[in-house]
Write a structure and sequence with these properties.
By secondary structure, this protein is an alpha/beta fold. About 40% of the residues lie in helices and about 10% in strands. Strands 1-9-8-5-4-2-3 form a seven-stranded mixed beta sheet, sandwiched between helices. Strands 6-7 form a two-stranded antiparallel sheet. Strands 10-11 form a two-stranded antiparallel ribbon. The structure holds pyridoxal-5'-phosphate. The site of pyridoxal-5'-phosphate (PLP) has 15 residues, from α3 and α4.
Amino acid sequence: MNVPLLDLKAQYQTIKPEVDRAVQEVFESQYFILGPTVERCEKNLAEYCRSAHAVGVSSGSDALLLALMCEGIGPGDEVLTTPYTFFATVGAIVRTGAKPVFCDIDPVTFNLDVRQVEARITPAVRVIVPVHLYGQMADMDPLMEIAKRHHLLVIEDAAQAIGSEYHGRRAGSIGDYGCFSFFPSKNLGGAGDGGLVTTQDAARAEKLRHFRNHGMNPRYYHQYVGGNFRLDALQAAVVDVKRPYLDGWSAGRQHNARRYDRLFAEAGLSPDVVRTPQHPHKTEGEAPDGMRHIFNQYVIRVPQRDELKAFLTENHIGCDIYYPVPLHLQACFADLGGQVGDFPHSEQAAAETLALPIYPELSDQQAQAVVNVIARFFNR
Ligand SMILES: *Cc1c(COP(=O)(O)O)cnc(C)c1O
């Protein structure tokens, strides 16, 4: 059996008439940049993310850059974040001229280890960027408390976590800014690049709107140097059609995660052979304490990761590594002086993690096939 890591064609088949109609409407209007479709999408997503304001932007990467630019972060400033994330989190920091300061992850959740954060704060740190990796939120209460005590801003990298919840509060609604991505493989994906910044603060929202459009206000009068970070109407139209389905898709992903947990247990693959993710959806229904994991990825840990990946690929099972090189060891950041051993949990995760197919349309037979091939690998 052939099981892809992600099957966007299967999703498209379930909503094709609506998506096609929405795209057609944008073409009929010939209104392609910002405008009423973008405004409607922003309003609906602000509500969904339980944030007072939402500003559509060109990508998740630009969402992060824009939030940092709006706060005037630049040379001489430092921004604290995790080295175990997608490149864009740290790329945005470096592009402002600021310096990233890394803090290791909790090896169970893969998110910033909040117990280690305070010791990493230098006098130059102005912002903390927690990343809600794989769709599960970082431990926000203690993090916000630390930020408050040190007068730091918090920018949530929620690119993988739209609709995720922490004690009943949604990703992007807790920090000063929330940054989201509509990259097609995210849980709410567009038909190209797009992103969103949320904030509870009206002045920040207004500044974001100016910054995404060259710092312009009013037309052709520029108070700041922003950039072209605008969301286009086609992306907004597609995202707005898909948003009402998002909770159902997230429930499908949670169901698939539970099913994997069960199948791995039935296959006799104990936690020291295949470590399955810790999550609050072990049983059907409401998760305790209002915690909600939306499973952008279902990531297992195996010591023989590279061999298992090759075996799965040979057997037509899609899988991938998020991420093979922690950011303190990336060539482009060599001048920061990162060394092997600096962040051992991030380095170990980079060596052991493997993402399996978790998309909502994954069938029982497909999930069983994935676990069968993994069991076969270990019983060779
Ligand atoms: C996808 C992603 C981004 C960047 O989003 P793009 O829309 O691809 O620019 C940033 N941070 C994380 C954690 C991501 O997963």
